[in-house]
Predict the 3D structure of the following.
Amino acid sequence: MLEPLRQGGPPPPPPIDPSAVAGSASCTLPPRYEAVGGARTFTRTTLTSWDLGERFDDVALVVSELVTNALRHALPADPARQGLDCSVRLHLMRWTSRLVCAVRDPSQESPVAGEAADCAESGRGLFLVESFSDSWGWHPSPAPAGDAPGASRGKVVWALFRLPDQITVAPAHAFPRPRSAAARPGTVSDGV
């Protein structure tokens, strides 16, 4: 069974130093299952703008699972009646060597990986998140400034993807092919 990672546990949560972030984007998602498609579209657009379109399939699958879990398990049954903010936010953050997908929801309950029956159509979300990302975890959302100490505004569930080192490859014409000894002026070929 998968164990969710809390802040401070191995591996460490993604860095929060905003000056180290090479790019970030976020969107608020409505509390409807149709929002999962919008999250995938937002992810495709963002990854393409960061030249990371080749990572879309894995990242979109993880984003879909994290957003689905937030919508299915983290929203109250009747949010209007309880007077709660039920927004779910998707954050994508890029560093030079990693990409983090984070979903913030209003629940303080930790994500729990379930054991799905072989014939079940659901219940494998966190298993997929663990399988397709390099690491994942969660931590309580920080309370806004001015709130009581220890107050929480839900949680953030994140998944980290390592990015390959960006190696710039010189175009082929930058390295002319050496000519064979027989073709070079002033050389003698022994016929071999």
